[in-house]
Design brief:
By secondary structure, this protein is α/β, with parallel strands linked by helices. The protein is about 50% helix and about 15% strand. It has one domain (about 5-115, about 170-214): Rossmann fold, CATH 3.40.50.300. Bound molecules: adenosine monophosphate. Adenosine monophosphate binds near residues 11, 34, 54, 66 and 164.
Amino acid sequence: MTKIIVLIGAPGAGKGTQARLLEERKGIPQISTGDMFREMKKADTPLAREVQEIMASGKLISDDLTYQIVKDRTSRKDCGGTYILDGYPRTPVQAEQLENLAKEQGKEIQAIEVFIDRGELMKRLTGRRSCPVCGEIYNIYSKPPKTDNVCDFHPDTQLTHRADDNEESVSTRLATYDELTKPLLDYYEKSGRLKKVSGEGDLEEIYKELESLI
Ligand code: AMP
């Protein structure tokens, strides 16, 4: 049966970087709710402004709106086989909504926790940069671009720092993770659907381990 691979981990654990590598190298579509919301907030509509405000504060967007965008996106043709969800589900309600979606799509859910020491996270998040054109993720400490602050693939594009990677919203995002998302690890563990990988160390080593779990 084809799978929905759910990556769960605190912000900064490296889910996005690894999911993008899996997409690049194995052709498994990576669906990131964070990326979709960042795209959505660029529009000039009341909803976009609301999304922008919520994201900047580090809080979560409503379960129903999030479900709607996940359902729409994963019903496209490229998600007919196995796909990766990066950053979804993040609450018990979302986990329940995903069970229904998986049933409708005839897929199995496989959750993978990317775990990392809390002390490392702040450094990672504040060092994170990304390309506004292709979304490539860098880190000034652990994965710097070839030229300072410029995307390796878009030499004319300066990297940007996410608006919600400041200390205040990072603390809100970590607290939200502990309160709402962490309990999902137990939920998937109890139903025998949880695997774990360390998010610390060399990117390629983490990738190898993750790939072996899929
Ligand atoms: P991320 O890029 O995964 O860290 O997500 C950035 C922000 O997008 C989060 O802090 C939330 O405001 C919003 N977001 C992303 N995924 C979800 C989700 N599954 N549920 C609710 N809000 C989300």
